[in-house]
Amino acid sequence: MTSPVPSYRISVAPMMDWTDRHFRFFIRLISKHALLYTEMVTTGAILRGKDNHRYLDFSKEEHPIALQLGGDSPEALAECAKIGEDYGYDEINLNVGCPSDRVQSGSFGACLMKEPELVAEMVAACKSKVKVPVTVKHRIGVNGKESYEDLFHFVSKIKEAGVDHIIVHARIAILEGLSPKENRTIPPLRYADVYKLKNDFPGLPMTINGGIKTHTEIKEHLAKVDGVMIGRAAYDNPFLFHEVDQFYFGSMENPPSREEVLIELISYIRLALKKEGKVHHILRHILGLFHGEKGAREYRKFLTDRMHLTGANESILRDYLKR
Predict the structure, then answer these.
(1) Is 98 a catalytic residue?
(2) Which pLDDT tens digit goes with each residue over 167-196?
(3) Contact 88, 61 (CB under 8 A)
(4) CATH 1.20.120.1460, the chain: domain bounds
(5) Is 181 labeled as ligand-binding?
(6) In CATH, which of 3.40.50.300, 3.30.360.10, 3.90.550.10, 3.20.20.70 is domain 7-248?
(7) Rounded to the nearest 5°, which phi and psi values hold at 40?
């Protein structure tokens, strides 16, 4: 049953090397309603690649799911947006927030915040090709363009272009001298700027992102914006999503236990290994399941000691549950 609450109410951030299809399926076992995002996929990977299934395939259980695209060509992004829609994605998201050197070398990601008119063209081009929502994930600014006035101008341009929803990481990106990891922690959080932005654009759905780790924080933000996106905390402490459906989407279903999640994952792993990959490609994503609980260290050690062994498979989880 579809929740009457918009799926962007609570979402899991796109994270390179982390939010692959295995992690997304794992999170979906914990929350049925939170919106999931793919890792960023570049337009070049889609348009020049010979195997789009590698980048774009997902399980039907992952809905609602958004495809995040990286690029700076309105035409290429529009073509990829259409491909994504045809694959069945529920949303097309444009990356205007990633500060990595790899992204900057391609002139997209956070550096596009210096070019609001181009981002507006990108939004408009995608909107002309697809019927699903077109959204933008961006920072509150970049060094040299970090005032609230710069942020307001940027959002006004993409709003005029028809953006359906924005996700705002409440830090600026420093494009020279900081690593992506440092850009997630060193620039100070400026939640007040996002709140002001929502007041200035009341009709534009807006999600806040950056440094949010607890339900107390989530509820405080939801009093002022439309949605909350969780990044690293979703990976480090995935059971944070245990009661998301009940707290924020009005679900009356009983949330699963950690053991029930592992039981469900056994069948997924068995089927996944018949297609390709190694079991550690999946199990690496679930090491945080018992975060903060007694026995968490033993759980992690049990998995890590076994998941790289030759022939390792889903029986690791069966053996753990039999302990």
Answers:
(1) yes
(2) 999 999 988 777 777 877 788 999 999 999
(3) no
(4) 258-322
(5) no
(6) 3.20.20.70
(7) -65, 135
